[in-house]
Write a structure and sequence with these properties.
With about 160 residues, this protein is an alpha/beta fold. It has six helices and five strands, in the order H-E-H-E-H-H-E-H-E-H-E. About 45% of the residues lie in helices and about 15% in strands. Strands 1-2-3-4-5 form a five-stranded parallel β-sheet. Helix 2 runs parallel beside helix 4 (about 60-75).
Amino acid sequence: MSAGTKMREILAKKGLVEAMAAHSPLSAMLAAEAGFDAIWASGFELSAMYGLPDVSVVSMTQHLDMTRAMADRSGLPVVADIDTGFGNAINVLYAVEQYERAGVAAIVMEDKSFPKVTSLIAGGRQDMVRIEEFQGKIEAARAARSDPDFVVVART
């Protein structure tokens, strides 16, 4: 069963999924041991683990490698917070292909401009992309899936 199918089954059965934010395989394993339903592969937490601000400094490769390890070690569906999708719709196509291949159940993408500035920085830039651009990213994410159960979440 694919990770996306597993996530959709949990959603259908429970309605509300209890996910714990994680930044490493160890924290993901602890979430599984504690009985959580899923893992939130947090971009903020991963940035913090590297001692960096959450401003698109951590590369897709760094995020993907850690997320892959979380999915592999926890046995839980992983929701990857991919911030703005690492660029434009072309970057999103590649990202979704890679995250799905890594065993991730879902991606969450936000409508901020790249590079993103976390909303936790006082006075930080919170520019949103045009609706048409974000729509293109969502369409790219959906088109890139090989598994129709791979979940694409758009957020603001």
